[in-house]
Specification:
Blueprint: H1 3-7, H2 29-51, H3 73-81, H4 87-108, H5 124-147, H6 187-211, H7 216-228, H8 230-256
Helix pairs in contact: 3-5, 4-8, 6-7, 6-8
Amino acid sequence: MVEQELRSDKSGYMLMNKPGYPRVSSWPNLVWVIFLMMLFITILLWGVSFLAYAPLEEMAEWAKTPNPAKAPWYFIGLQELLVYFDPWIAGVMLPNQILIGLMLIPYVDITPAEQGHYGWSKRRFAVAYFTFGMAFWFALIFVGQLLRGPSWEVYWPIIDYDLTGHTWTREGVPLKQGALKLASLSTGTGMALLIGFFSIGMILPFMVTKLFPKSRMVQELDGYLKELGYIKYFVVQSHVLLMVATVVKIILRLGFNIKYIIETPWFKI
């Protein structure tokens, strides 16, 4: 089967599983490239470690806990999530949701003929969603690494402290204690908001296609939904809504001092 025939195939199966798909052995073509790149990166990092001054923190004191105590930058996004959710949600459920979502990509892909191609024109939603997720994760790292100060409060540069200073506040200004002002919603209100958010989020794309059928973008959305099917749509939209809900929860806490939407003895969201 020639490449053009493979690319124009409209079946929903993964392209690589089709009979006649042109294959190239990974050994030695790919393995050697990976091995050489590993050597190159190792040598590069070894050289940078000689040139860049990267001291460790000061010696720990047994009676003094660092404030703030921050994780390495690559884990600080996870540490930032712990501010907004229960540890099992921030540390287990959300990271697993990301991993499961990545594993499901081949099974919800409706353009298998475009495998190996990552252009915007054929994968607008996928590119936009993935880019937003990456930007969101690095935004968490940015906030945790650069804006979080003592008691894990947000300290704004210039507004709260001088860029040339060595403290988190200006002289004579006490440290922030914003956590004392936080309040949770009632369980009933929180449950109603949560159910309403996911219910409306599930039907909203279909409502848009009914309300604005003549719009070109809506017509593309309608075609995408029909091609996706209900089961794949439920899987994809569940992950989209979980990510949007995480962003909304962060905004509610930072902007409106809402600690938890639902607070029970068993879990807090």
